[in-house]
Amino acid sequence: MLSLVACVGEVTQSAGGSPDGGLKPPVDAGLKPPPDVGVGPPDAPGPPPADAPVSGDSCGPDMIGTPPACFTAPPVAPESGKQWKISFSEEFDGTSLDTAKLTPCFDWNSGGCTASFNTGREKYMPSQIVVSNGTAKMIAEPLSPPESSSACLNGQCTYKAGLLSTARPKAQSGTPYLYTFTYGYVEARVKFPATQGFFTAFWMLPADPTYQYQWEIDIVEILGYDPTTIYMTYSYGQDRSQSHAVNSSTGNNGKCPVKDYSTDWVRLGVDWQPDHIAWYIDGVKCDQFNGDSTTIVGEPMQIILNNMIDNEWERRWNVTLTDLTQVRQTEVDYIRVYQQQ
Ligand SMILES: [Ca+2]
Protein backbone atom coordinates (compact mmCIF):
# COMPACT_ATOMS: atom_id res chain seq x y z
CA MET A 1 0.00 0.00 0.00
CA LEU A 2 1.07 3.50 -0.54
CA SER A 3 1.24 6.12 2.04
CA LEU A 4 0.22 9.55 0.86
CA VAL A 5 1.46 12.34 2.99
CA ALA A 6 -0.01 15.73 2.46
CA CYS A 7 2.02 18.84 2.86
CA VAL A 8 -0.39 20.11 5.34
CA GLY A 9 -1.19 18.07 8.28
CA GLU A 10 -0.49 14.45 8.43
CA VAL A 11 -3.11 13.26 6.06
CA THR A 12 -2.04 9.78 5.36
CA GLN A 13 -3.61 8.05 2.46
CA SER A 14 -3.16 4.61 1.30
CA ALA A 15 -2.88 5.17 -2.32
CA GLY A 16 -2.64 1.96 -3.90
CA GLY A 17 -3.93 -1.39 -3.62
CA SER A 18 -1.16 -2.75 -5.60
CA PRO A 19 0.63 -5.54 -3.94
CA ASP A 20 3.47 -3.27 -3.25
CA GLY A 21 1.82 -0.02 -3.34
CA GLY A 22 3.63 2.31 -5.58
CA LEU A 23 2.08 5.20 -7.22
CA LYS A 24 3.87 7.46 -9.30
CA PRO A 25 4.55 8.69 -12.73
CA PRO A 26 7.53 8.78 -14.94
CA VAL A 27 9.53 10.96 -17.04
CA ASP A 28 10.78 10.20 -20.43
CA ALA A 29 13.51 11.63 -22.43
CA GLY A 30 11.59 11.21 -25.61
CA LEU A 31 12.53 14.00 -27.88
CA LYS A 32 10.50 13.49 -30.94
CA PRO A 33 6.94 14.65 -31.20
CA PRO A 34 4.47 11.83 -31.46
CA PRO A 35 2.13 11.33 -34.27
CA ASP A 36 -1.16 12.34 -32.80
CA VAL A 37 -3.56 9.50 -32.97
CA GLY A 38 -6.59 11.46 -32.18
CA VAL A 39 -7.69 14.82 -33.14
CA GLY A 40 -8.19 15.61 -36.71
CA PRO A 41 -5.60 17.19 -38.86
CA PRO A 42 -4.70 20.80 -38.53
CA ASP A 43 -5.70 23.03 -41.37
CA ALA A 44 -5.17 20.94 -44.39
CA PRO A 45 -2.61 22.49 -46.65
CA GLY A 46 -3.77 22.53 -50.22
CA PRO A 47 -6.75 20.91 -51.82
CA PRO A 48 -7.66 17.31 -51.12
CA PRO A 49 -6.88 14.67 -53.71
CA ALA A 50 -9.33 14.65 -56.56
CA ASP A 51 -10.91 11.41 -55.46
CA ALA A 52 -11.43 12.48 -51.90
CA PRO A 53 -14.67 13.99 -50.73
CA VAL A 54 -14.46 17.73 -50.48
CA SER A 55 -16.05 17.65 -47.09
CA GLY A 56 -16.70 14.67 -44.91
CA ASP A 57 -19.30 14.31 -42.26
CA SER A 58 -17.79 11.18 -40.80
CA CYS A 59 -14.57 10.59 -38.93
CA GLY A 60 -14.00 7.22 -40.50
CA PRO A 61 -13.63 3.72 -39.19
CA ASP A 62 -12.56 3.24 -35.59
CA MET A 63 -13.01 6.92 -34.94
CA ILE A 64 -15.70 8.93 -33.20
CA GLY A 65 -16.65 12.56 -33.28
CA THR A 66 -17.39 15.01 -36.03
CA PRO A 67 -14.70 16.29 -38.37
CA PRO A 68 -12.37 17.90 -37.73
CA ALA A 69 -12.71 16.80 -34.10
CA CYS A 70 -12.12 13.10 -34.56
CA PHE A 71 -10.86 10.80 -31.85
CA THR A 72 -9.75 7.21 -31.82
CA ALA A 73 -12.67 5.12 -30.63
CA PRO A 74 -12.36 3.21 -27.35
CA PRO A 75 -11.26 -0.40 -27.80
CA VAL A 76 -14.62 -1.68 -26.60
CA ALA A 77 -18.03 -1.36 -28.22
CA PRO A 78 -20.69 0.70 -26.48
CA GLU A 79 -23.82 -0.93 -25.13
CA SER A 80 -26.60 -1.52 -27.61
CA GLY A 81 -28.36 1.70 -28.46
CA LYS A 82 -25.57 3.89 -27.11
CA GLN A 83 -22.58 5.69 -28.55
CA TRP A 84 -19.22 6.74 -27.22
CA LYS A 85 -18.92 10.49 -26.77
CA ILE A 86 -15.89 12.49 -25.74
CA SER A 87 -16.45 13.80 -22.24
CA PHE A 88 -12.98 15.17 -21.54
CA SER A 89 -10.11 15.82 -23.89
CA GLU A 90 -6.79 17.53 -23.38
CA GLU A 91 -4.65 17.19 -26.48
CA PHE A 92 -1.89 19.60 -25.41
CA ASP A 93 -2.09 21.57 -28.62
CA GLY A 94 -1.27 24.87 -26.96
CA THR A 95 1.96 26.44 -25.79
CA SER A 96 1.27 26.21 -22.08
CA LEU A 97 -0.76 24.10 -19.71
CA ASP A 98 -4.49 24.77 -19.96
CA THR A 99 -5.20 25.16 -16.27
CA ALA A 100 -8.92 25.17 -16.93
CA LYS A 101 -8.57 21.48 -17.72
CA LEU A 102 -5.65 20.24 -15.66
CA THR A 103 -3.77 21.38 -12.59
CA PRO A 104 -0.09 20.62 -11.96
CA CYS A 105 -0.94 20.07 -8.30
CA PHE A 106 -2.29 17.26 -6.19
CA ASP A 107 -5.81 17.39 -4.85
CA TRP A 108 -4.41 17.51 -1.33
CA ASN A 109 -2.50 20.73 -2.04
CA SER A 110 -3.09 22.79 1.05
CA GLY A 111 0.07 24.63 1.88
CA GLY A 112 1.28 24.85 -1.67
CA CYS A 113 0.90 23.21 -5.00
CA THR A 114 2.74 20.20 -3.96
CA ALA A 115 2.41 17.44 -1.61
CA SER A 116 4.32 14.33 -2.20
CA PHE A 117 3.57 10.85 -1.06
CA ASN A 118 5.32 7.60 -0.68
CA THR A 119 8.09 9.74 0.78
CA GLY A 120 9.97 9.71 -2.48
CA ARG A 121 12.46 12.35 -3.54
CA GLU A 122 10.00 14.47 -5.50
CA LYS A 123 8.39 17.84 -4.93
CA TYR A 124 5.71 18.67 -7.48
CA MET A 125 6.07 22.03 -9.13
CA PRO A 126 4.11 23.74 -11.94
CA SER A 127 7.42 24.57 -13.61
CA GLN A 128 7.94 20.90 -14.37
CA ILE A 129 5.14 20.81 -16.92
CA VAL A 130 6.11 21.99 -20.39
CA VAL A 131 3.60 22.00 -23.24
CA SER A 132 4.82 22.20 -26.83
CA ASN A 133 4.47 20.48 -30.18
CA GLY A 134 1.24 18.77 -29.21
CA THR A 135 2.43 17.14 -26.01
CA ALA A 136 3.01 17.84 -22.35
CA LYS A 137 6.38 17.03 -20.88
CA MET A 138 6.46 16.15 -17.19
CA ILE A 139 10.06 16.77 -16.24
CA ALA A 140 11.81 15.27 -13.24
CA GLU A 141 15.15 16.78 -12.34
CA PRO A 142 17.28 17.47 -9.28
CA LEU A 143 16.00 20.17 -6.94
CA SER A 144 18.77 22.47 -5.81
CA PRO A 145 18.95 23.34 -3.07
CA PRO A 146 16.85 20.55 -1.56
CA GLU A 147 13.76 21.55 0.40
CA SER A 148 12.78 20.24 3.77
CA SER A 149 9.50 18.35 3.88
CA SER A 150 8.17 15.50 5.92
CA ALA A 151 6.59 14.22 2.72
CA CYS A 152 9.97 13.48 1.13
CA LEU A 153 12.62 10.86 1.65
CA ASN A 154 14.60 11.54 4.81
CA GLY A 155 12.74 14.83 5.18
CA GLN A 156 14.39 16.35 2.11
CA CYS A 157 12.89 16.80 -1.35
CA THR A 158 15.85 16.42 -3.70
CA TYR A 159 13.94 16.26 -6.99
CA LYS A 160 11.28 18.41 -8.61
CA ALA A 161 8.72 16.66 -10.75
CA GLY A 162 5.55 17.06 -12.76
CA LEU A 163 1.97 16.07 -12.12
CA LEU A 164 -1.26 16.55 -14.03
CA SER A 165 -4.68 16.06 -12.51
CA THR A 166 -8.28 17.15 -12.71
CA ALA A 167 -8.25 17.95 -9.00
CA ARG A 168 -9.08 21.17 -7.17
CA PRO A 169 -6.45 23.74 -8.09
CA LYS A 170 -6.59 25.30 -4.64
CA ALA A 171 -8.05 22.94 -2.11
CA GLN A 172 -8.01 25.44 0.72
CA SER A 173 -10.02 27.97 -1.23
CA GLY A 174 -12.72 25.48 -1.93
CA THR A 175 -12.29 25.61 -5.67
CA PRO A 176 -14.18 22.85 -7.45
CA TYR A 177 -12.62 19.92 -9.19
CA LEU A 178 -11.66 20.76 -12.74
CA TYR A 179 -13.28 17.60 -14.01
CA THR A 180 -14.79 14.48 -12.54
CA PHE A 181 -16.74 11.65 -14.03
CA THR A 182 -18.64 8.53 -13.12
CA TYR A 183 -18.18 5.59 -15.48
CA GLY A 184 -16.47 5.81 -18.81
CA TYR A 185 -13.35 4.88 -20.71
CA VAL A 186 -10.27 6.91 -19.81
CA GLU A 187 -7.09 6.80 -21.84
CA ALA A 188 -3.75 8.56 -22.03
CA ARG A 189 -1.09 8.20 -24.68
CA VAL A 190 2.34 8.50 -23.12
CA LYS A 191 6.03 7.85 -23.39
CA PHE A 192 7.57 6.99 -20.05
CA PRO A 193 11.17 6.69 -18.91
CA ALA A 194 12.74 3.30 -18.48
CA THR A 195 15.25 4.40 -15.92
CA GLN A 196 15.67 2.78 -12.54
CA GLY A 197 14.29 4.97 -9.77
CA PHE A 198 11.74 6.82 -11.90
CA PHE A 199 8.12 5.78 -11.52
CA THR A 200 5.06 6.61 -13.60
CA ALA A 201 1.46 6.46 -12.35
CA PHE A 202 -1.83 7.08 -14.13
CA TRP A 203 -4.66 6.60 -11.67
CA MET A 204 -7.98 7.76 -10.28
CA LEU A 205 -9.29 8.62 -6.85
CA PRO A 206 -12.75 9.72 -5.75
CA ALA A 207 -13.34 13.46 -6.03
CA ASP A 208 -13.87 13.59 -2.30
CA PRO A 209 -12.49 16.56 -0.35
CA THR A 210 -12.66 14.60 2.87
CA TYR A 211 -9.87 12.37 1.64
CA GLN A 212 -11.79 9.41 2.95
CA TYR A 213 -11.12 7.50 -0.19
CA GLN A 214 -12.83 4.17 -0.35
CA TRP A 215 -11.69 3.34 -3.85
CA GLU A 216 -8.73 3.68 -6.13
CA ILE A 217 -8.27 2.67 -9.75
CA ASP A 218 -4.65 2.34 -10.74
CA ILE A 219 -4.79 2.40 -14.51
CA VAL A 220 -1.04 1.87 -14.56
CA GLU A 221 1.94 2.02 -12.28
CA ILE A 222 5.34 1.58 -13.89
CA LEU A 223 8.68 1.12 -12.17
CA GLY A 224 11.34 2.51 -14.46
CA TYR A 225 13.74 -0.38 -13.96
CA ASP A 226 11.28 -2.71 -15.70
CA PRO A 227 9.39 -1.13 -18.60
CA THR A 228 7.87 -4.49 -19.53
CA THR A 229 5.60 -4.87 -16.52
CA ILE A 230 2.66 -2.47 -16.39
CA TYR A 231 1.01 -2.79 -12.99
CA MET A 232 -2.78 -2.48 -13.06
CA THR A 233 -4.74 -2.60 -9.81
CA TYR A 234 -8.15 -1.82 -8.38
CA SER A 235 -8.57 -1.18 -4.67
CA TYR A 236 -11.98 -1.23 -3.07
CA GLY A 237 -13.88 -1.99 0.06
CA GLN A 238 -13.46 -0.29 3.39
CA ASP A 239 -10.30 1.83 3.21
CA ARG A 240 -9.34 0.10 0.00
CA SER A 241 -8.62 -3.01 1.98
CA GLN A 242 -9.51 -5.30 -0.90
CA SER A 243 -7.86 -5.28 -4.26
CA HIS A 244 -7.80 -6.85 -7.65
CA ALA A 245 -4.37 -7.00 -9.26
CA VAL A 246 -4.11 -7.73 -12.95
CA ASN A 247 -0.48 -8.71 -12.61
CA SER A 248 0.39 -11.84 -10.75
CA SER A 249 4.08 -10.99 -10.74
CA THR A 250 6.75 -9.15 -12.63
CA GLY A 251 6.75 -10.16 -16.25
CA ASN A 252 2.97 -10.53 -16.23
CA ASN A 253 0.46 -8.09 -17.67
CA GLY A 254 -2.59 -10.29 -17.55
CA LYS A 255 -3.52 -11.08 -21.14
CA CYS A 256 -1.45 -8.22 -22.54
CA PRO A 257 1.99 -8.73 -24.02
CA VAL A 258 5.08 -8.42 -21.87
CA LYS A 259 7.51 -6.23 -23.79
CA ASP A 260 9.41 -2.99 -23.46
CA TYR A 261 6.65 -0.37 -23.61
CA SER A 262 9.03 2.53 -23.14
CA THR A 263 10.44 2.52 -26.65
CA ASP A 264 7.41 4.13 -28.25
CA TRP A 265 4.12 5.77 -27.45
CA VAL A 266 1.72 3.58 -25.56
CA ARG A 267 -2.02 3.93 -24.99
CA LEU A 268 -3.05 3.17 -21.44
CA GLY A 269 -6.73 2.90 -20.65
CA VAL A 270 -9.42 1.70 -18.30
CA ASP A 271 -13.07 1.03 -19.00
CA TRP A 272 -14.98 1.70 -15.79
CA GLN A 273 -18.61 0.63 -15.85
CA PRO A 274 -21.19 -0.21 -13.13
CA ASP A 275 -20.47 -3.91 -13.34
CA HIS A 276 -16.83 -4.09 -14.36
CA ILE A 277 -13.47 -2.43 -14.62
CA ALA A 278 -11.23 -3.49 -17.52
CA TRP A 279 -7.67 -2.50 -18.34
CA TYR A 280 -6.29 -1.91 -21.85
CA ILE A 281 -2.80 -1.41 -23.25
CA ASP A 282 -2.66 -0.21 -26.84
CA GLY A 283 -6.25 -1.30 -27.24
CA VAL A 284 -5.59 -4.82 -26.02
CA LYS A 285 -7.69 -5.97 -23.09
CA CYS A 286 -5.42 -7.14 -20.29
CA ASP A 287 -7.97 -8.13 -17.67
CA GLN A 288 -11.42 -7.40 -16.26
CA PHE A 289 -12.74 -7.20 -12.73
CA ASN A 290 -16.45 -7.97 -12.46
CA GLY A 291 -18.59 -6.66 -9.65
CA ASP A 292 -21.69 -4.75 -8.64
CA SER A 293 -22.65 -1.62 -6.73
CA THR A 294 -21.02 -2.96 -3.59
CA THR A 295 -17.63 -3.58 -5.18
CA ILE A 296 -17.46 -1.15 -8.12
CA VAL A 297 -17.00 2.50 -7.28
CA GLY A 298 -20.04 4.51 -8.34
CA GLU A 299 -19.07 8.03 -7.33
CA PRO A 300 -17.26 10.76 -9.30
CA MET A 301 -13.55 10.23 -9.73
CA GLN A 302 -10.60 12.49 -10.52
CA ILE A 303 -7.70 11.66 -12.83
CA ILE A 304 -4.03 11.86 -11.87
CA LEU A 305 -0.88 11.36 -13.94
CA ASN A 306 2.40 11.84 -12.14
CA ASN A 307 6.00 10.88 -11.64
CA MET A 308 7.75 9.74 -8.54
CA ILE A 309 11.41 9.24 -7.85
CA ASP A 310 12.65 6.53 -5.51
CA ASN A 311 9.23 5.96 -4.02
CA GLU A 312 8.52 3.51 -1.25
CA TRP A 313 7.83 0.64 -3.63
CA GLU A 314 11.12 1.14 -5.46
CA ARG A 315 13.03 1.43 -2.22
CA ARG A 316 11.50 -1.78 -0.96
CA TRP A 317 12.54 -3.55 -4.14
CA ASN A 318 15.96 -1.92 -4.14
CA VAL A 319 15.51 -0.44 -7.60
CA THR A 320 16.32 3.18 -6.85
CA LEU A 321 18.32 5.81 -8.70
CA THR A 322 21.88 4.96 -9.54
CA ASP A 323 22.71 8.56 -10.36
CA LEU A 324 21.22 11.48 -8.45
CA THR A 325 21.78 13.90 -11.33
CA GLN A 326 19.55 12.13 -13.84
CA VAL A 327 16.86 14.12 -15.64
CA ARG A 328 13.97 12.26 -17.21
CA GLN A 329 10.53 13.08 -18.52
CA THR A 330 7.20 11.49 -19.17
CA GLU A 331 5.60 12.82 -22.31
CA VAL A 332 1.83 12.90 -22.75
CA ASP A 333 0.10 13.19 -26.10
CA TYR A 334 -3.40 13.35 -24.66
CA ILE A 335 -5.69 12.49 -21.80
CA ARG A 336 -9.28 11.64 -22.73
CA VAL A 337 -12.46 10.36 -21.19
CA TYR A 338 -15.20 8.80 -23.28
CA GLN A 339 -18.69 8.11 -21.95
CA GLN A 340 -21.63 6.24 -23.39
CA GLN A 341 -24.73 8.17 -24.26
CA1 LIG B 1 -1.43 15.78 -28.51
Radius of gyration: 19 Å
**What distance separates the N and C termini?**
36 Å
CATH topology: Jelly Rolls
CATH class: Mainly Beta
Instruction: Please mark out the parts with pLDDT under 50 across 5 or more consecutive residues, or reply none.
Output: 1-55
* Portion of residues within helices: under 10%
Number of beta strands = 20
Count of DSSP-assigned helices: 1
H/E series: EEEEEEEEEEEEEEEEEEEHE
Q: Helices and strands: which structural class?
A: mainly beta
The kinds of small molecule bound in this structure are: calcium ion
Question: What is the approximate shape?
Answer: globular
Tally of individual domains: 1
CATH architecture assignment? Sandwich
Strand content: 35-45%
Sketch the major β-sheet.
Answer: 10 strands, mixed
Average of the residue pLDDT scores:
85
Verbal overview:
Strand 7 and strand 8 (135-148) form a beta hairpin. The chain starts with a strand and ends with a strand. The longest helix has 5 residues, at 312-316. The chain contains 1 helix and 20 strands. Strands 5, 6, 7, 8, 9, 11, 16, 17, 18 and 20 form a 10-stranded mixed beta sheet that branches. It has a 6-stranded antiparallel beta sheet with strand order 10-19-12-13-14-15, with no helix packed on it. It has a single domain, classed as Jelly Rolls (Sandwich), CATH 2.60.120. The chain is 1% helix and 38% strand. By secondary structure, it is mainly β. Calcium ion binds at residues 36, 91-92, 134-135, 333-334.
